[in-house]
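Researcher: Re-running this chain for the archive, since the previous output was lost when a drive failed. Same request as before.
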Amino acid sequence: MSLPIERYALISDCRTGALVGADGSIDWLCVPRYDSPSVFGALLGEADHGRWLVAPTDRDAAMTRHYVDGTFVLVTHWRTSTGEVEVHDLMPRGDGTCDVVRRLRCLSGEVDLEEELTVRFGYASAVPWVRQTDGVLIATAGPDSLVRRGPALHPKDHRHVARHHLRAGDQVDLSLTWFASHLDLPDAPDLDRAYTDTVAWWTEWASHYSHQGSYYDEVMRSLLVLRALTHDETGGIVAAATTSLPEQVGGQRNWDYRYVWLRDAALSLSAFLAHSYVSEAQSWRSWLLRAVAGDPADVQIMYGLAGERYLSERELTSLPGYQGASPVRVGNAAANQFQGDVIGEVMVALDEAREAGVDEDAFSWPLQRALLSYVEDHWQRPDRGIWEIRGHARTFTHSRVMAWAALDRGIRAVRNHGLDGPVERWEALRDRIRAEVEEKGWDAQRQTYVQTYGSDAVDAALLQLPQVGYCAPDDPRMLSTVSAIEQDLLSDGLLMRYRVDAGLDHFPPGEHPFLACSFWLAEQYARSGRLDDARTLMDRLVGLANDVGLLSEEYDTGSNHQMGNTPQALSHLALVQAADAIARASGEQPPGGRQGADRTRV
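Model: Regenerated structure tokens:
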């Protein structure tokens, strides 16, 4: 059975990633991209669904692990009754192929390590044809091949095994390389150079990091996660490295997050910009322009890593699901939803890019004008909201506010940056939307903004109102909304997205506190003068990260386990925003950025 979610660590080549368990088993790997079919799928099933195990034969071995500072090179240290050994796991950044390197080093004494390689292509639907010569094992099925290099393996029940006996000073290198099966076998990688270059690349990237505050390490790791989830060639930023990790064990809320949500990617861009990573913002903007080019009426809320539009959702029978949670889904039907908030998030991020000095070109501003025209035509349309409700479309207050934000940023572009556009018309519509929100999105009896027009329910997404400048964090209406959110949505001190037992999404009740929402609350506390509350909540939240600093989507406070897809971009970027807000409120970091100056009016 797969491990608890928090027992997995990510390694990445910025095109795809592998999840390495605390037991030494790589249980998830999709090649050559995050959204490709898996070759190791034990995460969503059992060992026979594909894995690569390297671990001491001593079942009582003690394990600790860490990343090499500022990198995604994972070092797992094992102490056995006979000696100590380290396994260094990494994915070199290369061209055309996809490599996983496992370097075994004996530090003292002597240690026996077992290796088990079980390759299952196509989400465990295909057992490969395997051939082996002189320590080179090649597994092939359909369009895919893997080559494993290292000491010889021995076949055993449709898997391959070996035992490595290491003495102090010994080193054994293992590598696994994906290549298209119709091509010639690629050359063996230079593993010494691959290791050195991988550490150097990540270290150089991290050296540009800028943050002043109490959560320095946590912000750095979160930015590294966002970079790892950003595809090198295309600039697309996936929402998570996995599919179908459940929001509740045994539940049905199992979704494929290996795609680029415009919302999540836009927020990631904001986090990069706030910490001086402008080239990542430029790369993502180029991705955006390609992905949404064409008729604005055809814009989707998510795309594939290169901007693919067809993300048809289907259920797999070849994988039983994480600890039995089914169905396992590939693709995401939410790509076809109308979500009225998305263009607002995009326009806010592009406004921040302008403020950071990213120049508009002959294509970028006309496209933004087209998106604003789409907002003008569709802002009154009921939608599925930020949480991708699969029930009936409704009028979400948050979506209306994000339509307001889209127009507000268009107005800023004209008034502050001299770009062309029908600014008076946009200003009139922006004010009309605000008037409607204040009338229909406000419950005078409860003294709160509401989730949907006509309801008295609240939604954690309302915490984004001051984030985008719709109101000040200490506006009386916002403060009373926060009180209602605390009353209705806090669960064991952490925040739910909304009340799932209300039947809003036509799924059975059952999910856990949503980590990004809890970070939004910490940010709100910091920005509204509740600094002690902000720090208390923030300290608890960063303490929910696993031993190498990774966060999934949700957290089960009953069992003390992470839940949902991992590592989750939205959780990590919300951590960055909250840490920045606390640093500013504490005087540790100068004001500015997304949570800085009041942007309620141009």
